[in-house]
Each structure stands twice: as C-alpha cells, then as structure tokens.
Write a structure and sequence with these properties.
single chain; alpha/beta; Rossmann fold; 2 domains; six-stranded mixed beta sheet; 10% strand; disordered N terminus
Length: 273
Amino acid sequence: MERAIRGDSARVVGIPRRVRARGWIGTPRRPPAKPLVAATPSSVTLTSPCRTFDVGTSLEAMLFTRGAQTEPDIEVLRGRARLLVIDDHAFPHSRLFKRDGYYFERWPEIKNLTQLTDGHFDLILLDLQGVGLNESPDLQGLGILEHVKRSNPAQIVVAYSAQTQRLSANAYLELADAVIDKDSSYVTYKDLVDKFLLRRATPGYFIEVMNRVLGPDAALVPRAVPKALRVLRGGSPATLRRYLTAKLPDPEQVDRVLTIVSIGTAALQMFAS
C-alpha cells in the first residue's frame, strides 16, 4: 500500500476511506449519508469524519437544548478565526484567503512550538516537506504533525504536500484531519477550511475529541459528556476535574481531557463574542 499525492487528478493512496470509530461513548448509529465535505475532490482525504452517537441522553438533545449555541455564522468565523500556514515556500492562495476576509499568517519555519498546541490558532495548514528541520530533522512536517496532534488532539491540522509520501508515513498522516494535494485549487482549500471552522465553533466538536481521547475508558466516566458541556458553556471546570480524577486511573489522561475542554471553552467564547 502506497500513499501518493499527485497533480490535477490527485488522490491520496493508502488512507482508508472508512475511518475507524475511535473511542466514543455509547453505541454508534448509522453514519450520516453525506461526508463532512460534500463532493470531496479526489485530492482531499478527510481522516476525522463527524459521526453521531447515543450517550444515554442523546448528545444532540444536550447540544440543542436551551442555552446551547446557535449554529455558527461562517462569515463571522472567517473574520475571527486565526489560520496558520507552515510552509518554507510562498503559499499559492494566501492573497485570495486575505481578500476573502480570513486572518492568515505564514511561518516559513517553526517560530513558536507552544502556539501550535495551546489553541492559539484555529486551523493549521501544514506542508510536510521543508519545515520543522530544527525540531524534527528526520520527519520534518510529519514530526510537527505528530507533536501537535499528540499534545492537543483538538487542534485542526490540514496536511499537504506536492511530493509522494513513503509508506512509513501512513501512521503519521492518519493523525491529520485532512490530507490535500498542495496544488489543489483555492476553492478546494477554502471549502475545506470553512467546513472545519464550522465544526470547531460548536461544543460537539470538542466532545467528539474528548471521547476519542477517553477511548475504552469512556465507560468509566458515563457523565463526562454533560459535565464537559456545562464547562464548554461557561461553567466551572472544578466539578469535571473532581469527577475525572475520581473515576480515571491515569492522571495524564485527565489532564488531556481538561486541556481539550479548556481550549474548547476559550474557542467558543471567542466565536460567540
């Protein structure tokens, strides 16, 4: 099995079309009929599709009860979201993104590793070649991708490249939220960015990531979802912290869940302000 990123008829070979369900609370329902990006071009592979699950009291019911956020406005999100491109060469569509009202920043090399993992940027577009040479000389962009997603699974990263990726890169590429051909059109990039920004502006996105991190241990914390939702809506995290600490055996797992919820709270407040 080989992963390749090619030109106009580009596609990524070796990324499974059906993505494994990863650590959700409850029993999965039938996946939605449409993918995250409608009519996704062959040059784009999404690796973190949205799915719907029963969690006792349904997640949908909890998300859309009184006090839940209304559906985000993409025009508002474009003006408030922080996008980062990490690429040692000029990004071909930067002028068009700026023209259409996006806050857009490019780093030719890693300037601040902490800002890649603390929620400072809402979405990162990451070139896989020629970046991260100081931080990960062997893996370059793949090493940056691994570090970011291991440190903060809620950080959205769209990876891209103009070169064929070796077979050993598969495990790293699966960490990305999407993989795209660097030469893809502006509208392909833009549609993908908008879909992820809309996702990230909802509590459900951070609940999804939290459940993924919990994995099989989600069974130990059946009330984690409603408690996390209260925090995401502006409540104190103290109750959630006590609950997780009492129920989960791994303190690092507790810290990762609390980090996800904390970053989610800040993101949702920023988009709602």
